[in-house]
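Hi D.,

Good news: the full-assembly prediction came through. Inputs first.
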Amino acid sequence: KAGVTQTPRYLIKTRGQQVTLSCSPISGHRSVSWYQQTPGQGLQFLFEYFSETQRNKGNFPGRFSGRQFSNSRSEMNVSTLELGDSALYLCASSFYRALGDTQYFGPGTRLTVL
Amino acid sequence: AQKVTQAQTEISVVEKEDVTLDCVYETRDTTYYLFWYKQPPSGELVFLIRRNSFDEQNEISGRYSWNFQKSTSSFNFTITASQVVDSAVYFCALFFGNEKLTFGTGTRLTIIP
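Then the structure:
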């Protein structure tokens, strides 16, 4: 079974631009979560989607948004990019949304903002 | 407060030595799950183990073993006979009522050949 895939793997943008990252979960998985990883803040939860609905959100500004499609694929968007948005963005999927379902992570998208 | 503490920022050991990575957690929930993930230089988080709060049985998987002790709120990870391929950053994580993973800050493990 194929794992979680994320595209693109690397991205370079300039301040003020916007960016869209894509995540395809493991086949059959319906929950997708997004995390930001930076050297200073570590791994931080962005949001989680299940059945096309955002069910949980972390403490990030409104510039960070996401959505999930009917095939469970998810996208996240960051508008008006700032230097501090440079990070590794990780997507994770789980089969359901039950407490404690194991989340399987993709390889991440490394975003650099210049 | 609910949080995960990995006090060891970096550890270096010589190949074939045993090494233990510490994880201490805080939660008021009685039902929760603990995880360990490995992050090699490629960046992907690789799932290693999941343990629920009602199962304090220790687990062994090959050279890996985990010791879960609710009395001390710890979930430690031991690698026996370490190998160079074990070099990575290891994260302990807690999953509780609000349904998100809370990660520790990670321990960078370097195995010296």
